[in-house]
Amino acid sequence: MENCIFCKIANGEIPSERVYENDFLFAIKDLHPRAPKHLLLIPKVHVEKFADLDDENLAMELYRAIQEIVKEQEITDFKLQVNNGARAGQEVMHLHIHIMGY
Ligand code: AMP
Ligand code: ZN
Prior knowledge:
102 residues
């Protein structure tokens, strides 16, 4: 998707430090962390928002990735957040899951 910052990060147009990656998704550090370990889990395909996620395999990949990431990063206490829609605070219109670790 043109002009989508997370698509640009996904395809390497914008450099990023990836803390996790597989064929379907990747995780980066949030630019403006609101927790000691604030990560963003981002699918590589452009899905605008959580309500549009209709690929069960991708949903399962996201779920599995969260569990692996927190294990790898030794995060025991964390919050997950998905903002769906602008009025709920979604600024980047490419699905992402905030993993906020403490
Ligand atoms: P949301 O409000 O749910 O759309 O969250 C978007 C998040 O993306 C915010 O927490 C931003 O700090 C973060 N963000 C925006 N641009 C970048 C970037 N280039 N690299 C890392 N995080 C970013
Ligand atoms: Zn996108």
